[in-house]
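A student in our group prepared the protein record below, which I am reviewing. I have pasted the whole thing underneath without changing anything:
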Amino acid sequence: MLRNPFRAAALIAVPSALIVLAAWLIWGDEGLRSGVVLVLGVVGLVCFFGDSLVLRAMRARPVGEFEQPELHRVVRELATEARQPMPRLYLSPTPAPNAFAVGRGPRSAGVCCTTGLLRLLSERELRAVVAHELAHVRNRDTLVSSVAVGLATIIVSLTALALLLPLGDSDDEGPGLLEGLLFLGLGPLAALVIRSGAGRGREYRADEAAARLTGDPLSLASALRKIEVGARTHPLPMERRLLAAGHQMIANPFPRRGMCRLFDAHPPTPERIRRLRALDERWRIG
């Protein structure tokens, strides 16, 4: 969608302006110059490395057609039908069933599946999941998501400053305690960035677009149900780098408790399934 590039720009511009303004108010002209340099560095990291952050967090690697011929065939067929370029394909070696798309646009896009997803789904369900991710690419949701991941990762990474601060004699427990306190303060800010960049409506739109591309809403509903159950059985570890990237996945990969609830940008799976079933019923009646 055309609004997504503007959302991505706003997501970068607002915190950047606040950083520069705060630096100027506190340190004057010298702070203004330092703030501009800092913002340019952050923008560069976000724009050019936002995609790789989630891939590294999931330990994903490129996967060739010889290794995964069925996956390549499914993606190629759907990309051709959707009139989109064939995305790069990645495989994440984790039992948690999930999938996500990366890229600033269709020509730089990639789709990643976990090994748990490929083991769990039938071909029809896999087609539905891939169609969902291709819809995110086409709508440029991945652009906003990459920006959100980059900003959230930078914010959460600031907790590492605890390791650099002098804490007297409590060298063993002090840094860990302070790091945890910093995360309690910065975690909600990172979650706010993610929620600003990943509205729940985008999942509903991608679900409907996937159903229209495959002509099979019930297969996506079945896949979402399996992924939801699989995520409870094999949740992703609650590492901070993964918390910053979890919103890019087709379904919430974390247990809905504690700090994880702040980072959950997905609509409830039962509601997504209900909408897909209603869509199938309308098509059958029509």
